[in-house]
Amino acid sequence: MSTDLVLYEAADGIATISLNRPEVHNAQNMALLDELDAAWTRAADDPQVRVIVLRANGKHFSAGHDVARSTWDDNRDKWLVSDIYEVESRRYVGYSLKWRNIPKPSIAAVQGVCIAGGLLLAWPCDLIVAADNARFSDPVVAMGIGGVEYHAHTWEMGARLAKEILFTGRPVNAEEALRIGMVNKVVARDELDPATRELAAQIATKHPFALRAAKRAVNQTLDIQGFTAAVQAVFDIHQLGHAHAISETGQPVLMALDGLKNQAAQMKR
């Protein structure tokens, strides 16, 4: 596995996976996502690993999909919904659900912005530790799409706040995220890695079978309430957004200027 885009290390029962594209605020292209999935798989398959930590190098956790260029890293004259569906169902919803269900506890350490596609990386983790400068947002309604591919919004925020965040595109700051239960704790930026490591070390002392059982119990409860079925159903609504955008512009999203300006403004703060 290349160490250019994603870094991996394991020690003391903790696997640490680091997004390593700080020059573009850890924006996601296909190569980064594939390397990230390989790192998750490596941690899952290592019997010495009891806890997985996902973190990011640089100022921001993730600016989401790489909208500055084609996220797919290609140039095409014609977009087909069937192509988009195949790629996004595997790399976006597929990867996120896979990471969510890995039978080991996972913790995301989030600093700066976690925008749209960034949510696909943080939300599948069991716990989230946020720096006090963390901001979570999904501004893609401004781009003609009803929400990012992995629709955990309703579960993470509650229905009314999820609608507000989607309709307006405004970010949820760290304190608000803590208040609504979307993150487990908020710490000073310079304490993010030590605090996350301390939490991971505490969890790593527990028996791995018991941890697996506890995680499965909570995830199964959410699934009985409809979580996975809802994510998969809303993914089809997301694809309808792509189809609408293609019918209007020939491109998979309506690249509204205000949406891009909003995203850029968040990363400058």
UniProtKB/TrEMBL annotation:
Pfam families: ECH_1. It comes from the Bacteria. InterPro entries: ClpP/crotonase-like_dom_sf (IPR029045), Enoyl-CoA_hydra/iso (IPR001753). Gene3D superfamilies: 2-enoyl-CoA Hydratase, Chain A, domain 1 (3.90.226.10). This is Enoyl-CoA hydratase. It comes from Nocardia jiangxiensis.
